[in-house]
Amino acid sequence: MINKLLTKLVKLRHELNQKVKKLSKTRYLQRSKTFNFLLSMTVAVIVTSIGITTDWTTTETPTITYKASSISNTIDSANSQVKNNTKTPTFNYKTSWIGNTIGSGNLRVQNNIEAMYVARDGTVYTNSHWDEAAMEAGIYKDGKVIAALEDTHGWSRGGGKAVTANSKYVYIAMTQGSRGDTKEDYPPEGTTWYSVRRYDLSGKPAAFPNGRGWDKSMLITSTKSEVTGLATVENELYVSDFAANQIRVYDTETMKELRSFTFANPGAITIDPQKNLWIIQSKNGSKPAKILHYSQSGKQLPQQIADIVEPTAIAINHQGKLLVAENGPRQQMLTYEIKDKPVQVSSFGSKGGIYAGVPGEVRDLKLYGLTGVGTDASGNIYINSNGFNKSGTDLRKFSPSGKLMWRSLGLIFVDNADADPKTDGVDLFTKQEHYLMDYSKAAGKQWNYKAYTLNAFKYPQDPRLHTSPDGTFVRRIQGKPFLFLTDMYNSFLQIYRFNPATDGKVAIPAGMFVGTNGKDLPFIAGNWPPHQPEQGEWIWRDRNGNGKFEKNEYDRSKDYPHIGGWWVDSKGDVWKALRTEDGIRHYPLQGIDPKGNPIYSYSSMEKQTTPKIFNDLRRIEYFPQTDSMFLSGFTVDHPAFGDDAGVAGSEIARFDNWSKGNRTPKWRIVIPYDSTGKREVSTAAISVAGDYVFAVTVKTAEVYVYNAKTGAQVKQLKPGPEVGSESGWIDIPYGIRAFRRSNGEYLVFVEENWKGKVIIYRLAG
Question: Deepest in the core among 438, 450, 508, 609, taking most CB within 10 A?
Fold first, then answer.
């Protein structure tokens, strides 16, 4: 009777919470604190009025006393009955973050800056294709984010790769997709507008006669490809129409087209003191890139710059010289005198960029992945580095003499961190970045950007340049550091080694696992990686140590195609969970080869049967020190609603003596999952560390903490005031990663995709 009543109370609270969530206008609004308080008090009164204390007489679950508190569910392995456990807070916690200069609020450093314009007063206007929190285009001044251009996100809108401004307006390249049958002005189904949108200097859209879009602020330039360059001089706006091989000229007030002229593969544009145009001509096949000189009327002038590899941005400085972002191996800003024949007169930044000196080590003058250059009227220099494959924003201001004045960082997008076990959590790694921590400092001040671990020039086949990994495991194998990366779909596991003597701080591609393509096709479409098997699954190992995928470096097999999760244990063994009955694959480490790569093979792989309680296995974590296996997924008792791919499942179970064949769980716990089909509640990821199991929910980003020995819930964590008490959705299967330090403190890293950071929960041990 008591069990049934308590179970009904759990269900009642769950249903009421769902109703609260429906009141939110956006997916990021928090639930009403007042309502939750009243709801908790109501449940407390009901439970207290029952006035019961219940003892469970099993050997595996301790005695549990009911009090007025929130309720969770535990399934005891002996009798498979649902038991209700109290959440008794056992520790306090604080939150912090890494990866973004700003940790909370509506304005923070955007995910990427793909284009930049610097005004005479030092105001920096930016643009990018996408920002998760709708800051595709931003305004920066004196090291602060002062505004975001409005309405660049949602409703099939996005930003672009060009921006400019004059004394009255900001102009950005943008895209506008179709919205189906609507009364407002949107493109027809299957059509995209590539447009220029006009804003006032505060960031509000500025309409004009015959403007398009719902607010009449858009100028449609093409339906074939995006705008690749923008510049203004006097009352004229110059636009690079890449698809049409045209430079189009518009009136800055009326936005009417005045004229156009032909230009092959036009890119970024800047205007010199004589009011003539310098335009990047993008590389086309075997034809290298150039920078060409044109009059306002469209006449090509004889000057050109051809001694460059990859020009990505140009600007005119306060002295009338041409600045060029050279994104080739030099990774520098080049300065040209352009009064007569262009002559390079100086360069700025360390030659070789981030790979100069100690490769990968971050220094003030080491640039990487340049996307923007400019100066203000005082000669201060502004440079943005985006890394490679859009690693993130690194916007810097330098004095005319080259001294760093400020730096704004937005390094995280769909990523999570893990700690190096050797340095006790002082060294943290994400998929491309290395951070050095000082936990004695205030929240947000604890991290120092130490290194960028990707070398796009030495290792152009690095999987991070061709895929989108987002989950990081840091492991010490035989004392040596390794990175293991997987992605949003658990489709692969990438392996990286380190060799400071040859590569400094760079992570060297060492190996890769992929799953089976169920369509008898190569697992990865396209030309990368070379020589991959035509079907099935494979393990690649960099046998000769050059970081390239070569024909004799693949091990081949074929298996069930649907992967639930990956794990790398402390010995370096790899585990894979397949979503089928005999779905556990164990790849024991076979050693480290002479080049420093860990060795795995299909011939040594062990197939293990999934415990019968699971019918869809999603996550796997094995600890050889205790011979304990933690599994999560959907069970016979709590099945999935539909496929519901990506989430961690409905239960977590612990199995002891795993290597001895035990498949009877020590405990089972029901984790948050909405079985109504509305998918309002689900668990994205789990992580086990020390005495606790941590799980994080998808939409609310709440962290549930369970006792690893008993399965009892002991705490529920939410983002604290240090990060604005807010978080976006958890989008990745390894969106939580926990680490216990030698002093007993727990570091819990949670992906915060929305505002471009990783949240850190610090829990006293």
Answer: 508
